[in-house]
Amino acid sequence: MNRRFGWLLLALVVLVVAGAVVAVVTQRPGISDARDRVDRAWTPLQAPLDARYQALTGVQAALNTGGQSSRTVTLDLTAALKQWQQVAHANDPAVQGPIANDLEGLVARVNVNLVASPRLQSIQPLQAALSTFNQAVVDPPAVRSFNAAVDAYQRARTGTIKRLVADTFGFPARPELELAGA
Fold first, then answer.
1. How many whole angstroms separate alpha carbon 107 and alpha carbon 109?
2. Helix 72-87 and helix 93-116: axis angle, to 10°?
3. What are all long-range contacts of 73-82, with beta carbons under 8 Å and residues at least 24 apart?
4. Mean pLDDT value of segment 29-51
5. Are 110 and 118 in contact (CB under 8 A)?
6. Could you tell me if 81 and 57 are in contact, meaning their C-beta atoms sit under 8 angstroms apart?
7. Which of 5, 110, 127, 178 is the residue whose CA sits 20 to 30 A from 66?
8. Mean pLDDT over residues 119-142, rounded?
9. Picking from 54-63, 137-146, 151-160, which range would have the lowest pLDDT averaged per residue?
């Protein structure tokens, strides 16, 4: 009985190992290809996003010179712009995407604050800086292409076996790009 149990246990271990090898061999290339498509779709967005966030430094400066430097949105904007400047030329949507989305969310916050505050509305350099920022447009078809690639990548890396392979081999989730006002 013990000998039979040993053989069954060995057979079970061999099946699990073989199953893991088959999962890796069959799933990893598809996940890797999908991630590479996300990376390629990000490349045409980098320069327009960098120009957009360079324009956003004008919004930050206008908030600071307008006496708004201690506001949470200004502090958050300053921190996020510093992060962007550190990774601006990384060509890595896994790193740059979340920061870009944070910056876009902060622009939305600035716009909401502007609408609600006559004091902010009276800061003409802020109005001009926001106008400059809004003119720094990122090509909508390129954004849609990137977001479609992210969706395909997410589908490629989800599911019980695919998720195990993705987690084991370092295929983290990638965020879609959500532009303010888009």
1. 5
2. 160
3. 73/106, 73/109, 73/110, 73/113, 76/102, 76/106, 76/109, 77/103, 77/106, 77/110, 80/106, 81/53, 81/56, 81/57
4. 90
5. no
6. yes
7. 178
8. 91
9. 151-160
Cα angle vertex 101, ends 86, 128, to 5°?
Answer: 85
For residue 147, with 0-12 CB atoms within 10 Å meaning exposed, 13-18 middle and 19 or more buried, which class applies? middle
pLDDT in tens, 64-109: 998 888 999 999 999 999 999 999 888 889 999 999 999 999 999 9
DSSP label of 175: P
What does residue 12 show for φ and ψ, rounded to 5 degrees?
Answer: -65, -45
- The residue behind tokens 């490349």 is 43
CA gap 17, 36 in Å, rounded: 28
CA distance 137 to 133: 8
What would the two tokens of residue 12 be? 């079970």
**Phi/psi of residue 89, each to 5°?**
-110, 25
What b/e string do you get for 103-124 counting C-beta neighbours within 10 Å, with b at 16 or more?
Answer: bbebbebbbebbeeeeebeebe
Q: What is the DSSP string of 19-35?
A: HHHHHHHHHHHHHHHHH
